[in-house]
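Inputs:
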Amino acid sequence: MGKSERSLVDWLRQRAGANPFRVPIGIGDDMAAVRLGGNVVLVTADMLMDGVDFRTAEHTPAQIGRKALAASLSDCAAMAVRPIAALASVALPDEWSMEQARQLVEGMLPLAERHGCPLAGGDTNSWSHPLVIDVIVLAQPWPGLAPVRRTGARPGDGVYVSGPLGGSLGGRHLTFEPRVLEARQLAARLTENLHAMMDISDGLALDLSRLCGASGVGATLDANTLERTAVHADARAASAADGRAPLDHALYDGEDFELLAACCCEDETIETGACQWQRIGEFTSSGLAMRRADGRLEPLEVRGWEHFREEGPSSPSRGTR
Amino acid sequence: MGKSERSLVDWLRQRAGANPFRVPIGIGDDMAAVRLGGNVVLVTADMLMDGVDFRTAEHTPAQIGRKALAASLSDCAAMAVRPIAALASVALPDEWSMEQARQLVEGMLPLAERHGCPLAGGDTNSWSHPLVIDVIVLAQPWPGLAPVRRTGARPGDGVYVSGPLGGSLGGRHLTFEPRVLEARQLAARLTENLHAMMDISDGLALDLSRLCGASGVGATLDANTLERTAVHADARAASAADGRAPLDHALYDGEDFELLAACCCEDETIETGACQWQRIGEFTSSGLAMRRADGRLEPLEVRGWEHFREEGPSSPSRGTR
């Protein structure tokens, strides 16, 4: 088996195969779901590392702490569930001061409070290597709303995104607001017509290919609509700096932390709170394609951030490209 | 505030202060407890790092994976609760092969199965630095048994340990069996007479001082009884090699993953399944002391593994001393 994050996770899913009554949602979705007595608890862990997801040389401890919690809350948004409590495990560099350690936590607290997700525990370690932080969030379904998985997209569903994409590494990846409430609103609005959802952390193209793979469908994006509605101003700024097309940034940059949804819906836009969800294409029976302005269908190239590849060390880092 | 793991955790507990209805057990115990609907879910995260808790140069991926899960299951034992599911977040070194990554997981699976704790998810990452693995375990109370905290020890309670201590780094730290079932049996046997419990990971003396701190009590250990009942053969082997007294190894080595309990009980030993719990002393109103064979009381020196100290980099590592 070739070395890749995807083949490792595929292997894990088959190998670990938990009892589906005890673990209704296992390896491969944004969160796992575990049955406890009469309740289902959802849980996610998102590990961020210096030099990959942030740089301690550039970013403050508070910015890093905030991003770490926000990334895990974004998983709650992806499943349209309610965050309940967070834990943080850290490997602090030996040379960090108490003040730096405290600022890491201080960066999380306003976000934790806004989302009703108190810090309930964790594990404090130190070592002679760079900072690692793993934030775990427990969640439960919102009343009356089932968790939304990656697996339910159907041909004919619209491909929706919760906001414009690209250029996040210019700074937005440190300040984004997890779409927890907007996801809840979308789920309440569409009810059974919201078929699948995930958050976009590794680039629209790669994450769309993952959602399609989990659902056993394909998708065709509309270049015109993408250009008009889903390219972030930050993608245009990045384009001005590096010459790559803004659309290229929107498709491949990653770290957007917007949501990608499969909705049985024809509306061009859906408004929920702070988000205007845009319909940027359609799910199909197979294949990933881009419809150009002149109507031509081209294969959609899939690339984006993936951990644990053959090329390893020479690859660009994620939060720091 | 001086730099130390303890002062950081103390600060965190005060700063994060979660709603005690939502989070009945917060920062500072072996697991956090979170209320979800009608249920309480317990959760622990235990992060292990190369060069601190294991050495990839010496230990196989399977040994490391097993230890990481066992450490988190030991937290379930410490609270006398039932493991339900595990997640594992990893930062794999870029140069690791698929086979190494798979062996890390394979090392967990027999233990996971034996404890009815399937691997339900996690987060797979890679980077150019040493291996980090953070294992999260969700648990629930055993039927009819409340989770046992660190805070309930009272003067007059016996100090009990679930097995002999010391010399674990000779190899036992990779193969220990978490005392999940024995903790349940002790809790069922003693009911309200089991006042407090924790697992011994950083040395009996340091962990006893933590339990005493959490409970607001002191303790006096009996050197004679300790020598006779609670010094592991591995501690004697370590003593033969380094000349430090066996009792010194039992008090300060760490990585034992036996349990330390405060029981309102006079029995010298309590048998539960594979464990003979030994009464090695008594909780008192304050102070930590050792009663020598001749009856003299000496202060008990408190030292052991602590993360995030001033001396940092020059300190010995934990699983690799």
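The CA atoms of residues 33 and 42 of chain B lie 4 Å apart. Flag for discussion at group meeting.
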